[in-house]
Amino acid sequence: TIPSPWNRGRGASVLFAALKLLGRQDRIFAGGRDRIEETLSYIDRAEELNIWPTFPAQPLSHAYFTIEPYLTMLNTLSTLGMPEYVAKQRPRIEKAKAMMGRLSLEETALIGEYYLITLRNLGELERTIPDLDAYLARFAKILERAKPAPHWFPNGVAYPYAMETLWFFGREDLVSEGAIQRMLDSLPDFVD
């Protein structure tokens, strides 16, 4: 077993998607077990288990390390073709929404696009974020407040993620020339 909820959730999501692609989705439920629910329940216990990954750069919050495996697992559910299973996940979708509110600017930028794509893939985007344009307008303010340097992770990588999120959802008009210039000006900081 993989003790870290972050690694277990991310690894299981890839495994479940691969089993679906290989036509072996039945293995997820072999022996009367529900490995999807087992994995999600394990992620539910992340705070209690207190097993957090570390990165050599800037630390990330517990909310970030909990929301990312939730989103990877929930997004995998959208690929498995199990709408009845997705319907049972609304409390976890609400929990992910609450966790988004506890993230730093950089963490929000890192996971924001994946959050929105997961909601869209689950058919939950309009229910969870009824006014996507207003959400994206608030999201775009990250580019005015966050600094893309001096650390590539999470600062530097978060900045282009934020830009890509706005572009992906058709709001590239919210990416200002100033934001683009700040990103370009920060590149020498990552080379030294």
Q: What's the story with the biggest beta sheet?
A: none
State the shape: globular
Q: How many individual helices?
A: 12
Q: Would you report the number of β strands?
A: 0
CA-to-CA gap between the ends? 40 Å
What are the secondary-structure elements, in order, as H or E? HHHHHHHHHHHH
Relative strand content: under 5%
Radius of gyration: 18 Å
Low-confidence sequence ranges: none
Structure report:
It is a single chain. The chain is mainly α and 192 residues long. Helix content is 69%, strand content 0%. The chain has 12 helices and no strands. It has helices at residues 5-21, 35-44, 46-49, 62-80, 83-87, 90-100, 105-122, 125-128, 132-140, 142-145, 152-168, 177-191. Helix 1 (5-21) packs antiparallel against helix 2, helix 2 (35-44) runs antiparallel to helix 4 and helix 7 packs parallel to helix 11 (152-168). The longest helix is centred in the middle third of the chain and has 19 residues, at 62-80. The termini are far apart.
Question: What's a concise summary of this model?
Answer:
This protein is an all-alpha fold. Helices cover 69% and strands 0% of the residues.
Characteristic key phrases:
mainly alpha; 69% helix; 0% strand
Topology at a glance:
Layout: H1 5-21, H2 35-44, H3 46-49, H4 62-80, H5 83-87, H6 90-100, H7 105-122, H8 125-128, H9 132-140, H10 142-145, H11 152-168, H12 177-191
Helix pairs in contact: 1-2, 1-4, 2-4, 4-6, 4-7, 7-11
